[in-house]
Amino acid sequence: MNILLIGSGGREHALAWKISQSKLTTKLFIAPGNAGTATIAENISVASDDLDGITEVCLKQKIDLVVVGPEVPLVLGLRDRLEKTPGLERLLMVGPGASGARLEGSKDFSKQFMLRHRIPTAKAKTFTALELEEGSKYLCTCNLPIVLKADGLAAGKGVVIAQTHDEAQSTLHDMLGNKRFGSASERVLVEEFLSGIELSVFVLTDGEHYVLLPEAKDYKRIGDGDTGPNTGGMGAVSPVPFADEAFMNKVKSAIIAPTIAGLKQESIPYRGFIFFGLINVGGSPFVIEYNARMGDPESEAVIPRIDSDLVEVLLACAQGQLKGKVIRMTNNMAVTVMMVSGGYPGTYSKGKTIRGLGQLSKSGSQIFHAGTRNAGHEVVTDGGRVIAITGLGNRIDEARNRAYRDAGDLSFDGAYFRKDIGVDLL
Ligand code: AMP
Ligand code: GLY
I need a surface site. Which of 50, 175, 260, 346 has the fewest CB within 10 A? Predict the structure, then answer.
């Protein structure tokens, strides 16, 4: 089978690494990929939001299966576009159409969806720019902290947790009045703050049935001890100790099953990943957000733990034949450490030479490129999150030691990584 993977981050390198090991894979292309994916597959220089370019690649390279990493092409309607392209009638795809991707693309839609299907989530009220005054009055009645969310995609920056009423007021005015996130903040959700530990749960669904992937914990803040600004994710651990059988049974019955049944009931076709961003509030899971894709860096921890042939399951998903399928996982623990550019998540420079890639890996960890590119004979930095290092082991400390030993052998000017990934779970 010829497979086209869309995206360029660590998640895509991890997916490419697993897909390339399958006996079902004839040729793997990645658009646009990074320096890491170039070592195991063919990068094609087409951006992940270039629907015209992707359509052309599918036709030209006789692609059988498209697997989408990031959310933007899904929300833009890549599936809908490919489905109506003459010559691509038999093309299979993992990733929902625009209607299903609204689970991620509109926080107002997903909140109303959860309410309709009685899926546990934080209480929220939505305000438009015309309702600014009403929203402002409503804020005065809310307990602190107050969560404000731009409705649309805002590259992970659309959520503000206001610690004072003044901050909540200025955030609401900024988002609705000044359109801080453009059309993404034409609507803003004012949400109740939930207190608990977060975890990421992933399924692959064909709209009827689903298979569960290993769950993971993401470390979002830039600094050790969960301090400083939010990032795309500085590390991950899988599995998550508190996600025991009793807890996961609640997740399945109160969240996963009603979500998939709800999509079906509302005639929203869905073949792809659903990422449930959950919070454990006193033993009960609540949904913080849905994503229509896998997590990053969670994928870099989760995918190396999968024992099954991933392409077999992706194919079954795309064909609507997931019934009876399972994903076998190993008993390993995985700890992923993300090396980032100095200055990230603020401004940072690119093009720094990455040293030490050649001699890896002393401890057997897996290196996934995130923001890298080839520049002549060198690999250089090309993003905020640069390289993910995943250690596996029978215990968390063993997995941590492996990841950190190899992280210490990699360097570039300004490189930074958190030193405490997984420490809270020891
Ligand atoms: P989101 O972009 O929806 O994932 O939100 C970003 C982060 O904000 C989440 O990962 C949580 O840490 C936090 N967050 C979002 N909604 C809430 C909430 N209702 N209560 C507490 N924290 C939240
Ligand atoms: N690590 C969180 C995300 O992928 O959205």
Answer: 346
